Task: inverse folding
């Protein structure tokens, strides 16, 4: 299997002012690395789609589990950068 | 479902049982377009929803921004307990929640009232305790302007709650309040904070129906993979030296009896974390006592001999397992926990099942064989004799372990014990015969000094038929001593035992063992007169003298009295808790206690 340096985590989250704090707070307090964030509201503003760029390390699974536990996180999916090149044009 | 009233909507018959409160609210029900409409303020709605969620007591302190809530409480049957510090209020809620397993509520005003809750909320998070903190907030239009007593309690509590809400409209209360209970009590339990701006508490709102409240009581349905159950049973049947390592998850799943049957059937020895004590009969030969930093020698040594570790309802906390790389090196691990994020967080398991530990136990038990395990149990008996838990000789009446043991003989078996944090806490865990879950309330994860007294008050409120004993130290007790006033208000049957060594004992012990006896800031210059302080609050207080020859007689008389009493007992200032795993050490690298 090809080694991927980075992963993209895609989230569907409830859209209200506290959600961003819940997600970035998780990364800082659990000392997970976060390389990039993209977020935009969808579904007439009820939810948002969020992309998180994370370094691939042995904690990726723990990050996903912690994200799934957040009340406002509706869906979590993991992609390679190739599958989900949303950050590639921003460099 | 609730719904805003729309003109011409269906008439709903509101079949209330007309209690006094509801009678009062009934006055607000107007006839509007031929249908019943209720018009209540956000505060009234909040209190009514709390009643509907089964809350009959709330601990808290009023202030500027939660006054509307208190005004609504005035009309309610809910009993209010006025704490003397918000941390006390939240620990009173914890005492109720920890002793009953059900969510309990505390109130605080905005700003300092809210920040004073933080320690107790964090404590509830680490020990998975369902409390709901409801804070007043400055009016929504003032938020973000640094107005008087404004603090971002929503932001502050994100990392220490299971979830939190900032209520932005009165309608949201109908969803948020019942949801707070569901979140707090479901799955892995935990604290929830609800922040309600004052203007929302005051806003009047018309509606025609209360939401259906189903207090979360049934267990989550987890789809447990049967193939994992089979594999787990196979691993257990094939293991030669299995050990069950159990914790607070057993208490929260209420499955001590299932665990007992499970262990008996296959003869698997059981060790418990601090949080799991009380779930397994202590006189059963399969019981190995508490593991970890202050566990018995044989217990910790045996763990490293195991070939299979059944980690059920535990989270591999460093105080329980010591250095993770030196823990159970030869064992395969089966990890069962209700919180998927705990699995493989610290120690990689060979097989894991995310689910309610009771259902997992009851599924696996049908597949495990009866096994005498003569060799393994024989080895354990030998090691128990060879490396026993060393207790002081019984004639040392003032040894803290003997004080604790002797007190256990003066109280009923179902007495609820609370502790503060430090040496007295570990001595209690080591020596007190804890025979039932939810009777030993202690701050395990956060290790909060000041926990004992307010938690004892909460436990006594929720269990009026039981005795409550709070073991504390002279350091810890000062940290929430103001709650003696709350105790005096309520005149609860709580006995407070202060094991007084004039030090921050566990700090002093570490300085003695690991910092070249540099006793920096661990010895108290002032030794307060605890009996006098207690009397000052209107609670009987006794200072025992260290040359009192009849300590047992004095204690016997004190425990025969009803109502609150404080007993201050001097102990050797240099007594240590042994054995001890040095910080960073492996579980078998204990010092002392031989």
Result:
């Amino acid at each position: 299997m090809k080694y991927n340096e980075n992963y993209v985590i895609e989230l569907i989250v409830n859209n209200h002012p506290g959600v961003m704090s819940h997600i970035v707070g998780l990364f800082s307090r659990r000392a997970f690395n976060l390389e990039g964030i993209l977020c935009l509201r969808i579904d007439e503003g009820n939810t948002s789609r969020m992309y998180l760029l994370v370094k691939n390390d042995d904690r990726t699974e723990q990050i996903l589990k912690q994200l799934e536990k957040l009340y406002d996180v509706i869906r979590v999916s993991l992609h390679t950068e190739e599958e989900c090149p949303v950050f590639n044009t921003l460099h | 479902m609730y719904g805003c009233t729309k003109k011409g909507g269906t008439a709903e018959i509101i079949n209330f049982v007309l209690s006094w409160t509801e009678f009062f609210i009934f006055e607000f029900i107007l006839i509007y377009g031929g249908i019943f409409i209720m018009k209540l303020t956000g505060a009234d709605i909040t209190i009514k929803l709390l009643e509907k969620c089964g809350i009959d007591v709330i601990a808290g302190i009023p202030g500027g921004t939660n006054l509307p809530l208190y005004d609504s409480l005035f009309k309610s049957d809910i009993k209010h307990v006025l704490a003397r510090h918000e941390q006390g209020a939240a620990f009173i809620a914890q005492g109720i929640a920890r002793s009953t397993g059900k969510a309990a509520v505390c109130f605080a005003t905005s700003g300092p009232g809210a920040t004073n809750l933080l320690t107790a909320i964090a404590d509830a998070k680490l020990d998975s305790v369902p409390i709901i903190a409801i804070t007043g907030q400055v009016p929504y239009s003032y938020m973000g302007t640094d107005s008087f007593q404004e603090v971002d309690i929503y932001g502050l509590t994100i990392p220490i709650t299971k979830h939190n809400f900032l209520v932005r409209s009165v309608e949201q209360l109908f969803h948020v309040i019942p949801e707070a209970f569901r979140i707090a009590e479901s799955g892995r339990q935990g604290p929830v904070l609800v922040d309600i701006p004052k203007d929302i508490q005051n806003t009047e709102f018309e509606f025609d129906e209360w939401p259906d409240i189903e207090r979360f009581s049934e267990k989550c349905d987890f789809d447990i993979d049967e193939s994992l159950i089979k594999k787990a049973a196979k691993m257990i049947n094939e293991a030669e030296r299995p050990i069950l390592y159990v914790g607070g998850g057993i208490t929260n799943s209420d499955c001590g009896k299932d665990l007992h049957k499970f262990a008996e059937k296959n003869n698997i020895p059981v060790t418990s974390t601090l949080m799991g004590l009380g779930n397994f009969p202590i006189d059963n030969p399969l019981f190995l006592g508490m593991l970890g930093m202050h566990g018995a020698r044989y217990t910790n040594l045996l763990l490293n001999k195991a070939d299979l570790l059944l980690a059920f309802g535990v989270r591999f906390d460093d105080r329980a397992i010591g250095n993770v790389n030196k823990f159970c090196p030869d064992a395969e691990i089966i990890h069962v926990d209700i919180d998927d994020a705990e699995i493989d967080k610290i120690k990689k398991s060979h097989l894991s099942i995310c689910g309610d530990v009771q259902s997992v136990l009851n599924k696996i038990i049908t597949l495990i064989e009866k096994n005498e395990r003569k060799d393994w149990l024989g080895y354990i008996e030998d090691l128990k004799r060879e490396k026993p838990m060393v207790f002081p000789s019984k004639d040392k009446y003032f040894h803290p372990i003997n004080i604790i043991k002797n007190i256990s003989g003066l109280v009923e078996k179902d007495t609820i014990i609370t502790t503060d944090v430090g040496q007295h806490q570990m001595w209690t865990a080591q020596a007190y015969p804890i025979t039932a879950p939810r009777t030993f309330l202690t701050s395990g994860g956060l290790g909060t000094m000041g926990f004992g007294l307010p938690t004892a008050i909460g436990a006594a409120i929720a269990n009026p038929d039981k005795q409550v004993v709070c073991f504390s130290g002279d350091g810890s007790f000062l940290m929430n001593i103001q709650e003696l006033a709350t105790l005096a208000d309520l005149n609860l049957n709580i006995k407070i035992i202060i094991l007084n060594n004039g030090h921050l004992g566990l700090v002093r012990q570490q300085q003695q063992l690991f910092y070249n006896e540099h006793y920096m800031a661990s010895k108290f210059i002032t030794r307060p007169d605890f009996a006098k302080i207690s009397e000052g609050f209107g609670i009987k207080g006794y200072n025992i003298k260290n040359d009192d020859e009849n300590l047992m007689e004095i204690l016997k008389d004190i425990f025969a009295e009803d109502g609150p009493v404080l007993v201050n007992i001097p102990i050797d200032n240099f007594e240590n808790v042994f054995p001890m795993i040095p910080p960073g050490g492996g579980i078998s690298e204990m010092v002392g206690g031989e």
About this structure: The interface with chain A takes residues 154-155, 158-159, 162-164, 166, 168, 183, 339-341, 343-345 of chain B (CB under 8 Å). The two ends of chain B are 64 Å apart (CA to CA).
